[in-house]
Amino acid sequence: MAGWAEKLSKFTQNAVTKSKYMAEITRINIEISNYESNVKQLVGEIGQYVVDNGLLQDVQEIQEKVARVRELNATISANQATVEALRKANICPNCGATLDVDVNFCPKCGATRNPVPLPDLQPNRPAAVCPKCGTKLENNEVFCPNCGTRVAEEG
């Protein structure tokens, strides 16, 4: 029986040792990840400084990347404007309550929601437009879903 107990003891010691090594490896990997994150942040700050201050203008590769950053920032601004327009389209003009997209009267104060044309979420897709409020129409709608104006003859 002594041999069996000794083998179990060695097995347990090996498992504990391996667990300690694994814990240390995990700790070091987390530390490495934190350092890498700090490096990325600092490189980003350096890059932002270069862009903001117009540095390295004689380096073509840098200027191409700066131009791409400006394009992306313009796209971000356009998308933020679309989000803001979508948010405002669902706000009661009287009390500021958030409205469902498909309602024209505020359930809190009863005010009529002024129909606001919703931004086109699919700009490459041609769509009819309501002659009264300018909302994009889809699926051969007979009535504008925003203001209720008849836009087509029922067929």
Task: Tell me what you see in this structure.
The protein has 155 residues and is mainly α. It has 2 helices and 2 strands. The protein has a two-stranded antiparallel sheet.
Task: Summarize this entry quickly.
The chain is mostly helical. It has helices spanning 2-52, 60-89, and strands at 128-129, 136-137.
- The rounded distance between the terminal residues' Cα atoms is 94 Å
User: Structural class, judged by helices and strands?
Assistant: mainly alpha
Total count of helical runs of at least 4 residues? 2
Mean pLDDT: 82
Strand tally: 2
Share in β-strands: under 5%
Principal-axis shape: elongated
Which regions contain 5 or more consecutive residues with pLDDT less than 50? none
Element pattern in H and E: HHEE
Outline the biggest β-sheet: 2 strands, antiparallel
Proportion of helical residues: 40-55%
User: If strands are numbered along the chain, what order do they take across the biggest sheet?
Assistant: 1-2
What's the alpha carbon Rg, rounded to whole Å?
31 Å
Can you give keywords for this protein?
52% helix, 155 residues, two-stranded antiparallel sheet, 2 strands, single chain, elongated, 2 helices, mainly alpha, 3% strand
Topology overview:
Layout: H1 2-52, H2 60-89, E1 128-129, E2 136-137
Antiparallel strand pairs: 1-2
